[in-house]
């Protein structure tokens, strides 16, 4: 099935038809992976379409760009407006949001400085990343033979296109071996993250997740889950997680914008807990989806409503679209 694109893509401030959104083959990003991007979601909540943690995503995009010395003339509010405008222009109710900054067409060589920094925002429909069934049943994963990047090689905190060469190796290996996902270790052999998700384990009702020093992407869903878990009274530690801690955990789950909150039922064919979604995972899933589905008040100000008539329904701490520049 061809890629289910939407009508229009935002490219350097202009809306371009999906079929015309081309870049030249000599663009630097194609040859050297010189792009940084984001993946966010807009949900159709009962109060209207709302982007989840749009500010945090756009801030991470700016941080990724800063690490790679890429400058672009949009501030945080400008980025958020560009995303909201693109969703409105496409009249989307819910969608996956992919902003990208990349080194474009000027010269080819490792040095990217002479190449322009260009930007685009694409939207498309994207359901449950690891399958709807996996949200309840859990999925089977393996520990990848590929490690995550060493800290002094490619910066894991930057969501850069180059890092996804490593993710793709992890994912291809997992699929080839009959698993849904691969969990990578860091270069010290401790648990890092999945190819596109952060990981949590639960032992004796305490949650543990690898630290930012284990070559993970600082996930926005990870941050939400830490916050929601603490709201629910659980203790959460960000710590070094040895591989074997996963095997003997009561529960393991992965989180991310695409994967949302997905339980893991086996690792390397070793059953996790009783081999199905555990009670802590279920409680956190519910807390997460309740915010998205508008079942609980958005007390953390995580939702930004897209359409003007809905912005007045925002949570008190949310920023109304109309109030920005
Ligand atoms: C490598 C990696 N780790 C973690 C995550 C989860 O991050 P977030 O929750 O911000 O989507 C992602 C998803 O983008 C990812 O690609």
Structure in words:
The chain is an alpha+beta fold and 325 residues long. The protein has helices at 28-32, 54-67, 76-89, 132-137, 163-176, 220-231, 243-247, 279-292, 308-311, and strands at 8-11, 14-17, 35-37, 40-45, 48-52, 95-103, 117-124, 139-143, 181-185, 191-194, 198-203, 206-210, 236-239, 251-256, 260-267, 270-271, 303-305. The strands form 2 sheets. Strands 8, 9, 10, 11, 12, 13, 14, 15 and 16 form a 9-stranded mixed sheet that branches. Strands 1, 2, 3, 4, 5, 6, 7 and 17 form an 8-stranded antiparallel sheet that branches. The protein starts with 7 loop residues before the first strand and ends in a 14-residue tail after the last helix. Residues 312-325 have low confidence and may be disordered.
- Note the main sheet: 9 strands, mixed
Report the order of strands and helices. EEHEEEHHEEHEHEEEEHEHEEEHEH
Number of H- or I-type helical stretches: 9
Broad structural category = alpha+beta
Low-confidence stretches: 312-325
> Percentage of helical residues?
25-40%
- Quaternary status of these chains? single chain
CA gyration radius, whole angstroms:
20 Å
Distance between the termini: 40 Å
Q: What shape does the CA trace take?
A: globular
Instruction: Say how many strands there are.
Output: 17
The percent range for strand residues is: 25-35%
Name the hetero compounds present. pyridoxal-5'-phosphate
Mean pLDDT: 93
């Amino acid at each position: 099935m061809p890629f289910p694109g939407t009508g229009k893509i935002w490219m350097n401030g202009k809306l371009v038809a999906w079929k015309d959104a081309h870049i030249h083959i000599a663009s630097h990003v194609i040859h050297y992976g010189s792009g940084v991007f984001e993946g966010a979601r807009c949900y159709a909540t009962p109060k209207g379409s709302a982007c989840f943690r749009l500010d945090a995503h756009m801030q991470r995009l700016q941080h990724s760009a800063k690490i790679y010395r890429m400058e672009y003339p949009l501030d945080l509010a400008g980025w958020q407006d560009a995303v909201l405008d693109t969703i409105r222009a496409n009249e989307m109710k819910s969608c996956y949001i992919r902003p990208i900054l990349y080194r474009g067409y000027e010269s080819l060589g490792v040095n990217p400085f002479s190449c322009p920094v260009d930007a685009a925002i694409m939207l498309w429909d994207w359901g449950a990343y690891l399958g709807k069934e996996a949200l309840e049943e859990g999925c089977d994963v393996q520990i990848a033979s590929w490690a995550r990047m060493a800290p002094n090689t490619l910066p894991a905190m930057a969501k850069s296109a180059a890092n996804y060469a490593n993710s793709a190796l992890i994912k291809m290996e997992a699929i080839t071996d009959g698993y849904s996902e691969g969990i990578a270790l860091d270069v010290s052999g401790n648990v890092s993250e999945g190819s596109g998700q952060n990981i949590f384990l639960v032992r004796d009702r305490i949650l543990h997740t690898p630290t930012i020093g284990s070559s993970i992407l600082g996930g926005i869903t990870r941050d939400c889950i830490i916050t929601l878990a603490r709201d629910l009274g659980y203790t959460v530690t960000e710590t070094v997680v040895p591989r074997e801690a996963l095997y003997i955990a009561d529960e393991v789950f992965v989180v991310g914008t695409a994967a949302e909150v997905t339980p893991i039922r086996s690792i390397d064919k070793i059953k996790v807990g009783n081999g199905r979604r555990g009670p802590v995972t279920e409680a956190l899933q519910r807390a997460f989806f309740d915010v998205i589905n508008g079942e609980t008040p958005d007390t953390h100000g995580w939702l930004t409503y897209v359409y003007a008539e809905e912005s007045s329904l925002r949570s008190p701490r949310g920023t109304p679209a109309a109030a920005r520049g």
